[in-house]
Amino acid sequence: MAGTAFQKIYTKLNQITKATCTVTATGVGYEELATVSGRLAQVVKIMGNSVTLQIFSGTEGIGTDAELVFFGKPPTLKVSDQLGGRFFNAYGDPIDGGPEIEGQEVEIGGPSVNPVRRKDPSELIATGIAGIDLNNTLVTGQKIPFFADPDQPYNQVMATVALRTKADKIILGGMGLSNDDYLYYKNTFESAGVIDKIISFVNTTDDPPVERLLVPNMALAAAEYFAIEKNESVLVLLTDVTLYCDALSIVSNRMDQIPSKDSMPGSLYSDLAKIYEKAVQFPEGGSITIIAVTTISGGDITHAIPDNTGYITEGQLYLRRDTDIGKVIIDPARSLSRLKTKVMGKRTRADHPQVMSASVRLNSDAVNAKTKMENGFDLSDYDERTLKFARDYAEQILAIDVNVDTDQMLDTTWALFQKYFTREEVAIKDEFMQLYWKKA
User: Fold this and answer.
1) Which of 70, 81, 142, 158 is 20 to 30 A from 311 via CA?
2) Rounded to the nearest 10 degrees, what angle do helices 268-276 and 304-312 cross at?
């Protein structure tokens, strides 16, 4: 062994597996970074003097005489206002050609905020997407995923949310993005003139999959700086969490851990909770809200990834292609924001909860009418009207390209009620009927 007081260098490895190497060493910390033959590695296990490191890009070609250099610290991110408008890789290094960041160095992946320091979420997050704001209103400090099939335009939806949401900072954690998607985000943010408030940490399909495991922690370390130190409202967008979980699976398989359901590691629940539980509303006004994408293959929500996610998050937003209008919509029957009642009618117009309930009920009646029609039963006049309503409702409210404020969403829905139904069929409180049911 040789080296400075800060960098320990070893040249004798005891054991090498597909993904790890073991060395006899002292004074090394858990999660500390190192390089093995120039490849980045991280300490994953310490048993006495036996230290096991996971090598991110694999161990192929590494011999027992490889040079191993410990950094003396776990992964860190430099945080300051200079982060705004910048793109970084999974290690927090700039990938946009700009200068290195100067600022305070913080460890990533720290503990979640103590519950005593948390405030009950009560502030509205308006996305401008009617299928979210009208039926599944979001709240600062919430954690919620989009469930989507892999071929749906979820990156476009996330970029839309980023452009429309009135957060102080928006932090994108991109995991396994194609180069096209990466450039799409970059161009969208730049051309909209909002790049200064957006910070991006990106792992593309060209990068080693295992590096994805650093991305959420990098994004959340930056989020905590702005939420805690600057009292800002921060929206964290994570896409695609399924690819993050696949990387967890790769690592656990390489380390010969026994897989759990769907070949996922047994630690999947706690791995996901460590990310999502960083969502918080602080009494001082700062907040971290997490919106993630979980792609679901073949619509199977019983898979371990969406299944575990559902236990941790406060609802889900379900993207579905509506064949009647040929657009992707936020599915009202399968979407749910568990915290929406904290702001509906309080931070939005008083008629909001009633309009939401009536529209979802009438849309559900249309689903039943469609089933009757497909099974060859005769449709009543009411059934016919619900089907027409549902088509307009999907086109004017649920489609992801609808970009209006909450009052306009409510007015549009009232107009649809009046077009297709009687006052009795809509069944909303008389005080709101008198205000919003226009006299013919």
Assistant:
1) 158
2) 40
Q: Is the pLDDT of residue 1 over 80?
A: no
Q: Kindly report, residue by residue over 395-404, the tens digit of the pLDDT.
A: 999 999 888 8
From residue 242, how far is each of 54, 305, 307 by CA, in Å? 21, 7, 12
Q: Residues 17, 34: contact at Cβ < 8 Å?
A: no
Q: Could you tell me if residue 256 is left (phi over 0), alpha (psi between -120 and 50 degrees) or otherwise beta?
A: left
Residue-wise pLDDT tens digits, 287-342: 999 999 999 987 788 889 999 999 999 999 999 999 899 999 999 989 999 999 99
Question: Where in the chain are the domains?
Answer: 9-70, 76-335, 352-436
**Integer Cα distance of 30 and 199 in angstroms:** 28
Rounded to an integer, what distance in angstroms lies between the CA atom of residue 379 and that of residue 371?
Answer: 10
Of 435, 349, 292, whose CA–CA distance to 137 is shortest? 349
Give me the residue label for tokens 């913080």.
106
Give the ranges where 287-348 is alpha helix by DSSP (H). Answer: 304-312
Beta strands in 230-369 (DSSP E): 233-239, 280-281, 287-295, 315-322, 327-330, 336-337
Residue type (1 letter), 169: K
Q: Which amino acid is at 317?
A: L
Alpha carbons 45 and 25: distance in angstroms, whole number = 12
- Read off the pLDDT of residues 105-142 as tens digits, 9 standing for 90 and up: 888 887 777 777 778 888 888 888 989 999 999 999 99
Full-model pTM: 0.89
Q: Which fold has domain 76-335?
A: Rossmann fold (3.40.50)
pLDDT 10s digits, 333-372? 899 999 999 999 999 999 999 999 999 999 999 999 999 9
CA distance 28 to 73: 9
Query: What's the CATH number for 9-70?
Result: 2.40.30.20
